[in-house]
Amino acid sequence: MDKSQIEQLGDRLFDALTQCTSVPPLTSQHPDITVDDAYAIQQRLMQRRLAAGERVVGKKIGVTSQAVMNMLGVFQPDFGWLTDGMVYNEGEAVPMSRLIQPKAEGEIAFVLKKTLQGPGISVADVLAATEGVMACFEIVDSRIQDWKIKIQDTVADNASCGVFVLGDRLVDVRDVDLTTCGMVLEKNGEIVATGAGAAALGHPANAVAWLANTLGRHGIALEAGEVVLSGSLGIMVPVAAGDNLRVTIGGIGGCSVRFV
């Protein structure tokens, strides 16, 4: 795929983002698109967002569960970028006017105190570089019509990231078992999803190490002070205006969000 096509598709996704509209799957119009092409489109999309005034505050890892890998027909995770324009805090209201077809995922967020530069990053390196972890929501949202996505579509669309919500409690990684910690996600007081830390590539720090090593091959680091969303611990839960959600993760704490 040539540079002009990549820029055109990145601009199309940026326009869909800013106008809260969706576009047909990129893979339906360009069946030969590769994952590398998709990451180049993602970079164009992010260039447009940063030029519009947003600032990178972290990264996210997607496709960490076997179920999602099977759905997309791929067997590795993907990643996207987090900006200050995506951040909400514990209990804040997220306006549906800025979203298209959102779904909520309960996750563990890592807050880094040291920079991680791959390759060669291990789980031990990740844990040593982590200031703490907290419960969070990633509100995934697709600019691709009806979520009819292949891996190339979601990668190009910044790994289908919408916004994210951070809890208000930061926990030392030495004080929690990140593999066995249980996750419960409630929607309007009803339990709609459960999971455990092991859902994220067997251990959430495995996902962060994968990201550090993948980015490292391109000369990109996970920077001190950044937030890294390590992947969903359960199913995606559709949300609508009026919904109130809470996720609780054993040993870490909770996070709440409402949609208006």
SSE topology sketch:
Blueprint: H1 3-19, H2 26-29, H3 35-51, E1 56-62, H4 66-72, E2 78-83, E3 87-89, E4 93-94, E5 103-112, H5 123-128, E6 130-140, H6 151-156, E7 161-166, E8 182-187, E9 190-196, H7 204-216, E10 227-232, E11 237-238, E12 244-249, E13 253-259
Parallel strand pairs: 1-10, 3-7, 4-13
Antiparallel strand pairs: 1-2, 5-6, 5-10, 5-11, 6-7, 8-9, 8-12, 12-13
**The CATH homology group name:** Fumarylacetoacetase-like, C-terminal domain
Determine the number of helices (DSSP H or I, runs of at least 4 residues): 7
Instruction: Please tell me what the overall shape is.
Output: globular
CATH architecture, by name, is Alpha-Beta Complex
Write the CATH fold name: Fumarylacetoacetate hydrolase, domain 2
- Bin the helical content: 25-40%
Sheet/helix structural class? alpha+beta
CATH class, named Alpha Beta
Key features of this structure:
260 residues; Fumarylacetoacetate hydrolase, domain 2; 7 helices; 13 strands; eight-stranded mixed beta sheet; five-stranded mixed beta sheet; alpha+beta
